[in-house]
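Build the 3D complex.
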Amino acid sequence: MASKQVAVLISRGAEAEIYLSELAGVKVVVKKRVAKPYRTPEFNRLFITTRTKIEAKILSELYDAGLSVPAPIIVDEEHGVIVLEYVEGERLSDIIDSLSSEEVVKAAEYLGDFAAKMHSLGIYHGDFTLANVILSKKGLVVIDFGLAGYSDDIEEYAIDLHLMLRSVHAMRPSVVDAFSKHMTDSYMRNYKGNGVEVLKRVAEIRTRGRYIDKELRKSIMRERYVD
Amino acid sequence: MLLGKSFKVLVRVPSIDKRVVVLGIESTSHTFGVGIVEYHNGYVTPLSNVLSQYKPEKGGIHPRESFTHHVNVASSVLKKALEEAGLTLGEVDAIAVAIGPGLGPCLRVGAGLARFLATYYEKPLVPVNHAVAHIEIGKLVSGFQDPVIVYVSGGNTMIVVEKLSRYRVVGETLDIPLGNLLDTFAREAGIAPPYVIQGKHAVDICAEWGDSYIPLPYTVKGCDLSYSGLLTAAIREARKASGSKKLLGNVCKSLREVAFNMLVEVTERTLMLTGKGEILLVGGVASNELLRSKFESIAKFYNVAYYGTPPEVAGDNGLMIAYTGLLGFLHGKTARPEEVIVKQRFRLDEEVYPWLANK
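Done.
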């Protein structure tokens, strides 16, 4: 009898290998961080343990708060392994072109709400892009908290929103205005802190890129210091 | 050596069997350069690539001093480029010039010269984006069709992909660029200028004195990265080293390691995000050996093709402007002299480039 395969590699992310497996009859995902050839051994060890630890902690906190993230099941910091609930569906980045304008608005509102609730817990995602949102049968699920962290700094929250808008801009530029409007409106309704400050920071971050029009940058920066 | 070799143009160009010669002028920052390319039947041949670099005796690039340098060398560089190509200005079909991004005074030397030549010799003028020129020359010599482009220089750090006839910035530095990080650190740590000795950066030379790593801040946000915190921390550590060659060596070694790892990580993420099969490293910092070896190893790891632009066209040069000008010229993107105005903050994602496929 052929031996039963315990785990199947389903994707290789930028820092981890993702396997599909089964645990007590339930489909699970095994996320294993791997050493990279370009990093020295010291850096590899540091990366693998600290990022695994933070990711697991944040996932369980968000899951307990009722946000739609995959449930963490088992964590092994030493080996850089997290076992998670399997979320079946497609990445938004793969299907954004085929969404209707109503669906785009719904996604934007949902993600604004998600970000607001996450930020209200003092957590930032760090890689909040369309590629890290899955459209499943249960609705949208945000995945990959590998770069997430705890912070009170609105800069981190603003970067999350900025990254999401940038990824929409890169994937489907024609809907970016509508997406931006609905995401920020929904963010403002649900964020517990001072949402206006976060959105101002988003505008400022945009102007920090290289070679943005000087006058635009000046006017935004001036506003920040005058307030 | 690229001169005299023929390269097949892989981007979209209208089919003409006429011979076309374009002269390109680069003057955006520390380099004044003139390059000439010849196009025939789908192939491009670089005919000459002459340049002169302004090297500050102390401190960083002073725009006015760099401007003075460019003014002083402009005519001799131009003359030499024409001599090497064996051509006269009358035989040139178009004049291309980098109009930005860059330092205002420096850019104006190139733009002024280009406007004069175009007017006096009655030649069409082609304005070129300097960043796009770095990318196009890299694509030409690598033969890559649709790479993830890592553009690193003194003034830029960005991850770029092609989409719908435009270049899209997938990730970039949120504050200072990689080349600026290395140069500013070297200056503050007292190991530069000169910034580059025999092709090696001062930080690379200093790193050889060290034997271990120290912790430094590592800041990656999705596909974006931030180097300012790393710079501040590294300068603080360099001050603490107070004269110890070995301790300063450790700072340089760690700075380089952290800065490069961050760049490779955002490249990996872009690769995963876009599913592309090629990595192209362009820009002045692309000459760095350690950086190249890290990119080679990551390309092998993901089984994708990698190409690091060779030093002769990785840094600023006139040849890349000539070639990109040629692409613009073949698509009729010419301008009248009075329309060719420098744009210091000319982003590469502002325009549609007709030679890019509509994918």
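The two ends of chain A are 73 Å apart (CA to CA).
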